[in-house]
């Protein structure tokens, strides 16, 4: 079973995303800030990470770079989650280590599509 870490400041987004992923046979862990996300990755590097682009007190691009610099940090697939389709933001995320992106709000089909695009499904 693959493990996915969800980094989002919204408890409801983490819960809904977690339910979708559990339905796709993923083990889910959650983080609401950079510190807890990095600690979770240090304890057990996940197979994938969903990173919300806008978490208070988080520079998401810096987080991507820090995660990729950790031992084993090259392994997880990272899906960058945005609330608007901004090609420049997506390009920056890819340059900083994201493997793909998806737009909020998303449903099961769009999450599956994003995960298929990066080779997780």
Explain this structure:
With 121 residues, the chain is an alpha/beta fold. The chain has a single domain (2-117), classed as 3-Layer(aba) Sandwich (Rossmann fold), CATH 3.40.50. The chain is built from five helices and five strands. The chain has helices at residues 11-23, 34-43, 60-69, 87-95, 108-117; strands at residues 2-7, 26-31, 48-52, 77-82, 100-103. It has a five-stranded parallel sheet with strand order 2-1-3-4-5, with helices on both faces. Strand 1, helix 1 and strand 2 form a beta-alpha-beta unit. It starts with a strand and ends with a helix.
The dominant shape is globular
Q: Specify the CATH architecture.
A: 3-Layer(aba) Sandwich
Content of β-strand: 15-25%
**Which structural class should the secondary elements be placed in?**
alpha/beta
The amount of helix comes to: 40-55%
CATH homologous superfamily caption:
Response regulator
Q: Tell me the strand order in the biggest sheet.
A: 2-1-3-4-5
Query: What do we call the CATH topology?
Result: Rossmann fold
Low-confidence stretches: none
Report the order of strands and helices. Answer: EHEHEHEHEH
Biggest pleated sheet:
5 strands, parallel
